[in-house]
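Changelog note: in this version the structure field was regenerated for every chain. One regenerated record is shown below for reference.
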Amino acid sequence: MKKIIQFKLKILAKMILAKYKPDVIGITGSVGKTSAKEAVYTVLASKFNARRNIKNYNNEIGLPLTVIGVDSPGKSVFGWLAVFFKALKLILIKDVNYPRILILEMGVDRPGDMDYLNSIVKCKIGIVTLIGPVHLEFFGSVGNIQKEKGKLISNLPKSGRAVLNYDDERARQMSKLTEAAALTYGFDENADVRAREVIFSFSDIAHASEYQADLANKANAAKLAGISFKLSYGGSTAPVLLPNVIGYAAVYAALAGAAAGVVYGLNLIEISQALRKFNSPRGRMNLINGIKNTLIIDDTYNSSPQSSVAALEIAGKVPLARGARRFVVLGDMLELGGYSEQGHKEVGRQAVKDKIDKLIAVGERARDIARGAEKAGMLADNIFHFARAEEAGKFIQERVNEGDLILVKGSQGMRMEKIVKEIMAEPLRAKELLVRQDEMWEEI
């Protein structure tokens, strides 16, 4: 039945795209796809009728659903009939409000996935965030991941545009795969769209949202105003403030959004103004008020060695009140194949570099995070291990004190958001603030 639905969705989506001919922006990468998608949408929606895929609709079923503009009905037969009816209606009766631009996150888990997605949509713009060791269980090597994701770029028309992360060598190399012009972004001085003089502000909350200000005051810890940097392109510069985010990943997402804005003719001032409304998706380095006036960095959407190292670096930079401690709760990083042991140990070593006080490892593979940290010099008394997220959540409840910082991160399958729900000050806001809170995930 799933294959039948998948085939019908593909045909209907292709017919809709052929009728309306929207510009399609495809976004791929091992890390940062969703944040980049949100930033691109934030910038382009300020000037154009745009749509981006919602939730994790980035695969062979989710992508056509985005083209149609509907949620997945799950196992409901009548729900799927309604989806097909809407698709047919779009084909038969012209919808004058159909988006001019579709922004599609294109997820690749196994070899051949990008070929299938490319068979549905013909992207005008391809954005590559970063290529790293994820899904190695199925790909075998990072080189194979690069090859698969590179198919997005090689499939671009000559009149299209490849938007590539200059700071990532594997992404940068993809400019050779296409005749389309390349536009790069990053921190490197050779990037076309560049971020300079990045400042993480933790003390001035004058420009922070009301919720952030309230959170920071209660926690008596880091008072985050946001991230500011200078955006440069083509000899012009504009100041950018991202008032609701933390971490370098948010800057990269903003740069991808800025690059998309440049492609569509927006000037840097227009791009800067649009980016003030950018919010990180749930589970991506979001600040949440914790129990006992603590501060949680919720990075529970997914995990990889690269994203974990980046999250730890930020956790190490956040200034804390005197006597407060840094806790990190790290779950298994899945689908790393033969790189699993090495990748987990690298993350453990990074925790020591960033002066983490307490390390809680969750899951069997995460034992290697603990081993890496202990070998790098962390005292065994400061390292704890639990088999399940629920157990770790209860343990942390008893251990944290006022002003402590708690970073929580792990692969999707580890359900690390359960820990955040256990230790957040307002658990009734879980559906609003945390990932995987719908009925489908609650059954797992």
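Spot check on this record: The first helix runs from residue 2 to 20. The chain has three domains: 2-186, 195-275, 286-434.
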